[in-house]
Amino acid sequence: MSISFSLAGKAALVTGANTGIGQAIAVALAQAGADVALAGRSEPTETLAAIAATGRTAISIKADLSLIDPVEGVVAQAGEALGGVDILVNNAGIIRRADLLEFSEEDWDAVIDTNLKTLFFLSQAAARGMVARGGGKIINIASLLTFQGGIRVPSYAAAKSGVGGVTKAMANELAPHGVQVNAIAPGYIATNNTAALQADETRNRQILERIPAGRWGASEDIAGAAVFLASPASNYVTGHVLAVDGGWLAR
């Protein structure tokens, strides 16, 4: 039996692909042969250019994914432009920080709605087409806080724990239809979102001391895992949350 990591002939929809992890995943999927639709609030100019350089097709879909209202239209627009959606990567997310005793309902709802509610209903919309076509791949971006509690981020921890649970729930129901659902839990990745931590000498040292690999992760580390989970090589992998963390959770 041959093992293939090729995504030739496939169409992917990636949310939150303007920078960082989402951008790296979208470009890596294109490098593996997929055409890619990018959904989010802002125009992902750099990502579109990087995908164009691979020779693959890329389109941008403007959508506010803090609400579920756009999800059907996003999937439909991606499908019309690319001939269906074979791969969905739910990367878009937000985080709000505050002390537990002061945490507001507004911050709770904003994070849960974007990171969990929209993720589920976008997956549901994409899965309908995947089931009709006989297969597909859904990849959710979880977190180390899928497994840990964190500090000052209760809604984020709740949402990412929920991502782990809903990944397994979706996998159970969609596996008979040839749709695999998995999640990636990134560790400490060097992106714009973690710039403050990297710049804090004490926190940076503490983080590096905890990571067996001895370095911050790169967005490309996550992208490699995404290509595997999007490809035929992972056809017997479903309901799994893959930590890409340099060994953080093993410590």
From TrEMBL:
Residues 10-187 form the Ketoreductase domain. It comes from the Bacteria. InterPro entries: 2-deoxy-D-gluc_3_DH (IPR011286), KR_dom (IPR057326), NAD(P)-bd_dom_sf (IPR036291), Sc_DH/Rdtase_CS (IPR020904), SDR (IPR050259), SDR_fam (IPR002347). Belongs to the short-chain dehydrogenases/reductases (SDR) family. NCBIfam families: kduD, PRK07231.1. This is 2-dehydro-3-deoxy-D-gluconate 5-dehydrogenase KduD. It comes from Novosphingobium pituita.
